[in-house]
Amino acid sequence: MGRSAGAPRLPWVLNDPLANRGTAFTAAERDRLGLVGRLPDAVLTLDQQVRRAYEQLRRQPGALAAYIDLEQLHDRNEVLYYRLLTDHLTELLPIVYDPTVGEAIKTYSHEYRRPRGVFLSIDRPRDLRRSFEELELGADEVDLVVVTDAEQILGIGDWGVHGIQISVGKLAVYTAAAGIDPARCLPVVLDVGTDNETLLNDPLYLGVRHSRARGERYDAFVAAYLDTVSTLYPDALLHFEDFGAGNARRFLERYGERYRMFNDDLQGTGAITLAAVRSALKITGEPFREQRVVVFGAGTAGVGIADQLREAMVRDGLDGDEATRRIWLVDRPGLLLDDMDGLRDYQRGYARSEEEVANWVDWGASDGEGGEGGIDLLTTVRNVRPTILIGASTVPGAFTRQVVQEMAEHVERPVVFPLSNPTEKIEAMPADLLRWTDGKALTAAGIPVDPVEIDGVRHVIGQANNALVYPGVGLGVVVSRAERLTPGMLLAAADAVAGQVDAGGPGAPLLPQVENLRASSAAVAVAVVRAAVDEGVARAIPDDVVQAVQDAMWQPVYGEC
Q: Fewest CB atoms within 10 Å of the CB: 71, 277, 359, 512?
């Protein structure tokens, strides 16, 4: 079948998003690349292209349409895409990532236009190595690989092969926030099936059409992935995203010392929470080792937070057991107890004994959140008298006025972080926390929140957004070529984030604003590189760490063609 005369084949350079610059090609470049007559006559600057792309984006009827518009630009011209994203990062971050990416994931098979990333099917494990080899990338040409099996995507659950979009979105933030070269990044999905009946019964679903593989077959596939990608790209950071709660921690514990791994759901969430706690303790003046912490929500995020806080207590002088005893985890069935049915391996270390709580007051006197037949959140707060209360539960309204005021009776400046998102799942709104405590609560949230005025003081609420941490962590690992990611490097990242705010003033935020994300990521990267050097895991030791980080940050500009 012949081609229509009205639809000539596009030259390769217009089909390669890394090389294409569209109407910015100069006359000389058009002549050399075979583009004469293939573009409108005008030659635009990158600034002009950004203006037009932004105007087009603003005309989209909603967030999902804006996401699709941006992805189409991403597929045409990566420099323009990242320049637009960088110039409007605060506005566009919720479009390219949470929450809009969640809606895009749900419609992926129906909105599919072209592939982006590497799709690895558990039904064809022998294709795993070939899938990477056919990319024709050398061992030193990949810095970062983001992989998901999509079992626990954001707050929306199991979405099978649609999870590739979470890997793509995560990498977009790495590049926009920390300047990691998009040409040196790979998004990957492990398509191991899905238990989502809607997908399995959708005739247009693009993934393998069977229930989610588990057990030995699944573990062998993940092991083969890690072996393959670490062999082919030995310097790459292997980022795990949105795996199921049990698998996320299990793989990190099993492979974290062997491979250069990072799990944002566990380590990133823990690090940004630690940063906010660090800022709060600068205000209270209390040492970390004396804190009493209640975490409501004992899933991946909640335990990841507990792990980071425990590590900080150990660094402040406690031994491991002492630090663990200062953290109480409450889930929907109640306070974690060691004789509970269904405890996951990663929860057991924080479970308390029956003897420890036998004499607690009011056990069973209330039936609040986190107490389905067990010790509820209010009872835990009443007996523990925590200095810090953290929510990672997705239980809306769980931090009731009674819970918060019970805490405030025993603590001068209660530290309360409702971190669940989106808004309809948050444990309490910061405005309520401040009103219930007469402005004394020190708070940050997992969602963007407008400032709150209490008694003439304007309280700016910091957002515990992992994007303040993981891009800089990734850049620091790339610059240092660290053998692995250590707890000390994560603590350094958290301290670097906390160090960017002066929380001492009335109503000051505990975390930096997302508007300064690129500078924040650079500061985090510098701290991570220095920690890697101090801990002896850096394979590259720059003479000037600050300059090395700046030199490593890719800029969205047109280079030589």
A: 359
